[in-house]
Amino acid sequence: MSAAIRYWWVNQSNSYTEELRHGCLAAPKRTRGQPVSTWDRVRELQPGDIVLHFCRGLILAIGKVSEPARERPRPYDLAGSRSSVPHWVAKVKCTPLVAPIDIRSIPLVWRTPEDGPFDEHGRPRHGYLFPLREPFVQQLAARFGFSLD
Asked: Which domains does the chain have, with CATH numbers?
């Protein structure tokens, strides 16, 4: 019996282009010796899970996890950060959206704190990876016309 598909929201900025190019999500295991919960969630990703890629105010791509996270060096370099420290790296096949979705076009009543990445004002929370509820993702797909397959 296979596990149910889960849905995720990843906040990316400088890492979006590199993670898209390398087909992965990557988060350090620790900072200052401590784990960070939104980074640690990369370990929860399983094949078939769906990821919404958010960057600079837009949902830019839909990803599908192809391999669970493993501990390894990040497969790319970013200015000001070390790729050699241990990371959780999951393989994700991303499909850029033909029409990126501006967060302001998502109804505020949908952007509730219960839906993971949003604060009480409907703004994206700080952090890397957040779980999403399936009804939220289904509403988005229906409203904005993208496929979850």
From this structure: 7-144 (3.10.590.10)
